[in-house]
Specification:
13-stranded antiparallel beta sheet; alpha+beta; 3 helices; 282 residues
């Protein structure tokens, strides 16, 4: 009887410990997904598509965003690009249904809706997907703490990067789709996030193949983090430069911010199909 009680106590302790660890992982991911973001944002962003042979396709796009009633709308407009100049993308976050994504194609002079089934596909031909351009709802996944004290070294000077090497103390968390429907929404079986304990940003994320959960298919890193202020005086954390690498093809894409203005009001007309088609705000 005494042995049984000890075993029972051990099982209870192990269960409670595991549950606490799972709760900690969820709480950490929630802190990341609820970081303060400006109600209005305007950024000049540079997108470099880096081929395996080192050839770079440099593109410049403007990003405009607003946040109302807890929902975020974002538009991208390609200003300089051999392949995408004039292309505009609108993303509108929804609460009770899938987010709306629309794209204007200047070659065809038409606007079309991006189907939900395409959200895991390439964003205008780069290594980022439409899923990567938004933050996934944490309740779509189950989260497991792999290491609560992981050291991650990020080299921001590789493949044409212009930043130095930084070390981060991180939470290492594995996130797996919690349902068949949630699994269908993504292009990977699970992902591992390395969340910086100081900023709660994922300084590194690893994505694994749907058919082989041990096969790494994509790696994302934040090459440079900056603490910035909006025009309102509020403090924010800026992902100054990010690099995503396709581990299968060797292709990479870097997105870096060259200029920004946050908290300055942007007309609602930017976030409409009319602006998407004309590029003109009322």
């Amino acid at each position: 009887m005494k042995i049984k009680n000890i075993i029972a106590a051990s099982i209870i302790a192990a269960t409670v410990g595991a549950a606490a660890f799972a709760d900690e992982a969820y709480d950490v991911m929630k802190k990341f997904t609820t970081l303060p973001i400006p109600n209005y944002s305007k950024s000049e962003m540079n997108l470099d598509v880096i081929e395996k042979n080192g050839k770079v396709d440099h593109q410049v796009m403007m990003q405009y965003g607003n946040r109302k009633n807890g929902l975020t709308n974002t538009v991208f407009e390609f200003k300089t690009s051999a392949t995408n100049k004039g292309t505009r993308v609108l993303q509108m976050e929804k609460t009770s249904k899938d987010d709306d994504r629309l794209i204007y194609l200047p070659q065809l002079k038409t606007t079309r809706r991006i189907p939900t089934s395409d959200r895991y596909k390439s964003f205008v031909g780069c290594e980022f997907t439409y899923n990567d351009m938004s933050i996934r709802d944490i309740d779509l996944d189950t989260h497991k703490m792999l290491n609560a004290n992981e050291t991650v070294t990020i080299n921001g000077g590789t493949n044409g990067g212009k930043y130095g090497t930084e070390k981060y103390n991180c939470y290492k968390i594995d996130s797996t789709p919690a349902s068949p429907e949630a699994k269908r929404m993504v292009e990977y079986s699970h992902r591992i996030s390395y969340i910086d304990k100081n900023t709660y940003l994922p300084v590194k994320m690893e994505y694994f193949d749907k058919k082989d959960p041990n096969k790494l298919i994509k790696t994302y890193i934040i090459e440079k983090i900056e603490n910035v202020k909006g025009s309102s005086g509020k403090d924010y954390v800026l992902r100054k430069s990010c690099l995503i690498s396709n581990e299968v093809t060797g292709r990479k894409t870097r997105v870096w911010v060259s200029d920004f203005e946050w908290d300055a009001k942007i007309p609602d007309s930017y976030f409409t199909q009319n602006w998407l088609a004309t590029g003109k705000a009322r």
